[in-house]
Amino acid sequence: MPDAWIRGGPDCGEEPDVQVHRYGASTFILRQSLCTSFEAPFLYLLFGDDRVLLEDTGAGGIDVVGAVDAVIEQVLAERGQGSIELLVLNSHGHGDHVAGNSAFEARPDTTVVGFTVDELQDAFGLEGWPLDRAEIDLGGRVVDLLPIPGHQEAHIALFDRRTGILLTGDTFYPGRLFIDDFPTYQASIDRLLDFTHTAGVCSILGTHIEMSSTPGDDYDFGVTDHPDEHALPLDASQLEELAAALEAMADAPHQEAHDDFVVFPL
Fold it and tell me: What is the Cα–Cα distance from 204 to 238, expressed in whole angstroms?
């Protein structure tokens, strides 16, 4: 990971709209600047031999297609490859993750998958939502798709078998874990935890950072400056901590701050 992500605040006008970090030869993490959106979401690009998968398209206000195309052109040039198919998926349907979808719809060699339950089921043959899983073959690289509703009804997680990275969107990240449907969310976390026990998960990456490096301290909602951010990666021990917290409060869900996240039932 980089020493620091673009932080917004006093650096607005100096930092780029999108920070691109290369996490290995064929994995890229893009972070939208707080100067363009206080949500400052993370986007992920996973390259296979035949297709590249983009998870999420940002909160708007940026040239997301240009940023993604620059990375694709770089990798294709390194490979001596003429073209590659782009598959666009969303972790879930909230606006700060899908705002750039329409910009990709006219892009050649691109498939944009819808972000409703029905569209995900049709695209990946998910018959038993949310218990079914799907495999996405990018060509020499397989990504598992796992439904994890609760934050939002059509939320998904993606597990990259090559790197061991589990992408959890807004379901689990260092920040405020907004829970729309508590029992459904709890069941999704329990399934995710079971998955980490067998799948060789090395790191868990979400789509925001809302915690500072001070344990239990989250930034005020809507601020556009994040000094001393918490690290992006979480791990299975922190997911286990969340599962235990949810179980303890199941009969009376309430807000509860932990060192690395805040349980936030709506």
Answer: 10
